[in-house]
Design goal:
CATH topology of the largest domain: BirA Bifunctional Protein, domain 2
CATH superfamily of the largest domain: Bira Bifunctional Protein, Domain 2
Oligomer: single chain
Largest sheet: 10 strands, mixed
Structural class: alpha+beta
Radius of gyration: 26 Å
Distance between the termini: 60 Å
CATH class of the largest domain: Alpha Beta
Length: 632
């Protein structure tokens, strides 16, 4: 069964159960400066899980594309990828455990044909110190579901992951209780880390058993959360039912939510009963790589990791570039560059000759023509960007090799030299280690790891500063800047022309930052005029109105929206001015600004304060960047 077939069956299954099907959000989070990428299915849904009304109702389902940069180094084994899709369904104060668990079990067994004898589940064991009860309801539902399939389902009290490696599994055990580190969800992690007002709750995971032998290097005994590869988590139902009180205790949320996430590619592995994500989900790229390299992909071969890395990284980079993230040395673009350069190195290791990496874009995206037509339509641009990056990297390799030769003349390479090659010349440190090993040159790897650790800590600190206090905090200053951001976009279109489009934003409580499409540097006069228009609209104290409209109606009104973003049939729209006009009023179309947006905003522009453009500069080719502040 193909990815497309599984995805379609899933969405049809939940549509038949009253769910509105919404499109995938972009890999670049909209109005969320707290994270670089959309890394999970629930990420775009957070405002609604926290209480905001979803324009499509209380039952939602989708397939969300996602990218996890933290998994780049993990790619190469049989199950890790950086790009993937999450099948999701949500109940926003609607159904709960007794509907959710039977539905997902029915979909996996009857819908896509998984043998229930290969399914194992987990539940929350409880937390005495926080007075959080054991999730016996989920366990009882699971027990009944298995028994209806003729499967005895005993319950195992495991607790910690470490305890699982000591205890292992006993015959007929199928429902496993784990502690909060495994079966509790909140944005802050375990219950004791949750601040007052934070929602959370137990979750119940589903695992597929491939039946492969246990590898004792991961632990003495096997259990569902073992990393040996026998078990694969394919889905997780989060039951958001608690909120932390100011006194540190937990109370019940007035509305209980369900958040399910199922890995599309992982479910495809289970359906195929093949424990190799690349063999199951990347066949077109693997076939092209086999032809380009003259080698055959086999999961146990020494070349398997290289095949997997190239296949995953090209697909991930293609989708990121399609969503507007171009290779660069900063922020999101750094990860695209890292993906492509790692893919180039491993394509070289496979012996790919006389064929650029961009050759793989077509097989990478071809299987997504129907689901993501906008990405497939951008494949020529994606190929061009990958070609440019490969040309740059080939030069980097040549320069880096020269420096490597100089550095290694003494027969040893210090940790600081490895780091210098990596940070200054862009020379991959893995390549330094490989070359040194081939030539019997000693490398102080421990010292290099220490240098890298310092670098990563500095990067994290810088990143925390960049994203500190973003829209997630909904502070007054951030909210004022967010509304000013809408005014600024319209002012730029007025001054520079209607072709100006937003290409990225980052809003903190200190300043707003907007990237926009424009070919030249703004003159001082243009900046002053844009600033004047924004402050004029602030002085007019225009109303800021949120409306829920059909997407077609919002587009007909000329509402601004994110480039490459797909939107549901009903959307949230914020309009600024004219006074006393509602969407039903003909004068509504005369609003100064109309944008697809989830909020938050001030009620009237007069609340913003005085706006000032602090800086205007180049961001990348054809993209300018403005930083703006408010005073008063």
């Amino acid at each position: 069964m193909t990815l497309s077939e599984i995805r379609q069956k899933y969405l049809e299954f939940y549509k038949a159960r009253g769910h509105a099907i919404i499109p995938s959000a972009s890999l670049v989070p909209e109005n969320d400066p707290t994270t670089l990428f959309t890394g999970s299915g629930m990420q775009p849904m957070v405002p609604y899980l926290l209480g905001e009304n979803h324009p499509e109702g209380t039952r939602i389902a989708d397939s969300q594309k996602a990218f996890r940069s933290v998994d780049i180094e993990e790619v190469g084994d049989n199950r890790h990828t950086t790009f993937f899709e999450m099948l999701g369904n949500w109940s926003l104060g609607d159904y709960f455990k007794k509907e959710q668990l039977p539905w997902v079990f029915e979909f996996l067994t009857d819908g896509v044909g998984l043998d229930p004898r290969n399914l194992y589940v987990t539940a929350f064991i409880g937390d005495e110190k926080n007075d959080l009860p054991r999730d016996t309801e989920s366990a009882e539902i699971w027990k009944d579901l298995f028994e209806k399939k003729g499967i005895e389902a005993e319950v195992a009290l495991i607790g910690s992951e470490a305890a699982g490696y000591e205890r292992g599994m006993k015959q007929n055990e199928r429902i496993f209780y784990y502690d909060a580190r495994k079966n509790w969800w909140s944005r802050a992690g375990v219950p004791e880390n949750m601040p007052a007002g934070e929602p959370g709750g137990p979750d119940s995971e589903m695992f597929y058993d491939f039946g492969t032998p246990h590898d004792p290097k991961f632990g003495k005994e096997c259990h569902p959360n073992c990393d040996c590869g026998r078990f694969l988590e394919i889905g997780n139902s989060v039951f958001m039912q608690y909120v932390k009180k100011p006194d540190g205790s937990f109370g019940s949320l007035p509305k209980q939510n369900v958040d399910f996430g199922g890995g599309l590619e992982r479910i495809a592995m289970a359906v195929s009963h093949v424990p190799d994500i690349i063999a199951v989900c990347h066949q077109p790229i693997v076939a092209a790589l086999e032809q380009m390299s003259g080698k055959k992909y086999e999961s146990a071969s020494p070349d398997a990791a290289a095949f997997r890395i190239v296949a995953d990284h090209v697909k991930a980079a293609s989708f990121l570039i399609g969503d507007g993230v171009l290779p660069s040395n900063t922020e999101r673009g750094y990860f695209v560059r890292r993906l492509l350069r790692r893919a180039i190195r491993y394509a070289d290791k496979l012996g790919v000759q006389n064929a650029p990496l961009s050759t793989l874009v077509e097989p990478a995206l071809g299987q997504y023509q129907e689901e993501y037509p906008e990405t497939y339509a951008a494949r020529d641009m994606i190929r061009q960007e990958i070609d440019k990056e490969e040309t740059k990297f080939r030069k980097t390799l040549r320069d880096g090799l020269r420096e490597f030769e100089k550095t290694s003349e003494g027969g040893t390479i210090s940790g600081s030299d490895v780091f210098l090659l990596f940070s200054t010349y862009g020379f991959p440190y893995e390549l330094t280690f490989e070359l040194a090993k081939e030539r019997n040159i000693a490398v102080d790897e421990a010292a290099f790891r220490e240098e890298m650790k310092k670098h990563q800590e500095l990067s994290r600190t810088a990143s925390a500063g960049v994203f500190k206090g973003g829209l997630a905090d909904h502070s007054e200053k951030t909210t004022r800047l967010h509304t000013a951001h809408h005014l600024l976009l319209k002012a730029l279109q007025t001054v520079l022309g209607p072709q100006v489009k937003q290409r990225g934003s980052n809003i903190t409580s200190e300043r707003l930052r907007m990237d926009f499409s424009y070919d030249g540097k703004m003159t001082d006069e243009q900046k002053k005029e844009a600033e004047r228009i924004v402050n004029e609209k602030i002085a007019e104290d225009l109303p800021v109105i949120r409306s829920e409209l059909a997407r077609e109606d919002a587009e007909r009104l000329g509402a601004e929206h994110e480039f490459g973003q797909k939107y549901p049939d009903r959307v949230s729209v914020y309009s600024i001015g004219p006074k006393d006009a509602t969407p039903a009023d003909p004068k509504f179309s005369e609003a100064f600004s109309i944008e697809f947006c989830g909020g938050p905003h001030v009620a009237h522009t007069g609340e913003i304060g005085t706006f000032r453009i602090a800086k205007e500069e180049a961001s990348s080719a054809g993209i300018r960047r403005i930083r703006g502040v408010i005073e008063g």
